[in-house]
Design a protein that fits this description.
Elements lengths: L26 E5 L19 E5 L10 E4 L11 E4 L9 E5 L9 E3 L8 E5 L8 E9 L8 E7 L16
Parallel strand pairs: 2-6
Antiparallel strand pairs: 1-2, 3-4, 4-5, 5-7, 8-9
C-alpha cells in the first residue's frame, strides 16, 4: 500500500510512516482501456484521463486489499469497480463500490468521499480487525431484477456471520 514517505506518483511525505496519504492507507489503481496500450505506464502517469487511483481514507485501512470490476451494479450501462480494505486496527473490513461514469474521474479518488451518485460503502458490524473480506466478484444478475450483483467472501466470521449480533448460520 501507499505508506511511509512515498505517495502516489512519488510525492514526498512527512516523517516516519507519514506519507502524503497516511500510514498504510492502501490504494487501487484503475487503468482505462484504450485502442493502443501506453507501452510502459507508471503510477505517476495516471492523470484522470487514462485512469485513477482510489486511496484509503484512514491510517491502516489497506484499501485495495481485494479488488474486482466488470459488473454494473447500478444498471446505468457503465462498469463499476469494487475494492475491499484489510483493516489492521479496531475498524472492521469495508468494501467500496465506485460507480463507473462517462463524465470522468479525478486523478485521486478518496474512498472516504464515496457515496450517493459516486457509489456506496459496505461496512462490517462491530470492530473485528482479524476478520476480512478475502474475495470479491461480480456475480451477474442473481435475483433477476436487471442489476448485476456482488459476491463477497468473508473470512473468520464465525458466529458473527448472519445477523451480526452473535447469530449463527445453520446449514
Amino acid at each position: 500500500g501507499l505508506s511511509g514517505g512515498e505517495g502516489a506518483g512519488g510525492e514526498g511525505g512527512g516523517g516516519e510512516g507519514g506519507g502524503v496519504f497516511g500510514y498504510d492507507v492502501g490504494a487501487a489503481m484503475v487503468v482505462f482501456g484504450a485502442e493502443t496500450g501506453p507501452g510502459i505506464l507508471t503510477v505517476a502517469d495516471i492523470d484522470g484521463s487514462n485512469g485513477f487511483i482510489a486511496v484509503g481514507s484512514a491510517d491502516d485501512m489497506a484499501a485495495g486489499f481485494v479488488v474486482t470490476g466488470g459488473g454494473d451494479l447500478n444498471g446505468d450501462g457503465i462498469g463499476d469497480v469494487v475494492m475491499a480494505t484489510r483493516s489492521f486496527d479496531q475498524n472492521g473490513p469495508e468494501a467500496f463500490v465506485l460507480f463507473g461514469t462517462d463524465t470522468g474521474f479525478e486523478r485521486i479518488v478518496d474512498l472516504g468521499t464515496v457515496g450517493g451518485a459516486t457509489g456506496f460503502t459496505i461496512e462490517s458490524e462491530g470492530s473485528y480487525a482479524d476478520r476480512h473480506i478475502t474475495s470479491l466478484a461480480m456475480a451477474g444478475d442473481v435475483n433477476g431484477d436487471g442489476f448485476d450483483d456482488l459476491l463477497l467472501g468473508l473470512a473468520d466470521m464465525g458466529t458473527y456471520g448472519a445477523g451480526g449480533e452473535g447469530g449463527t448460520v445453520d446449514n
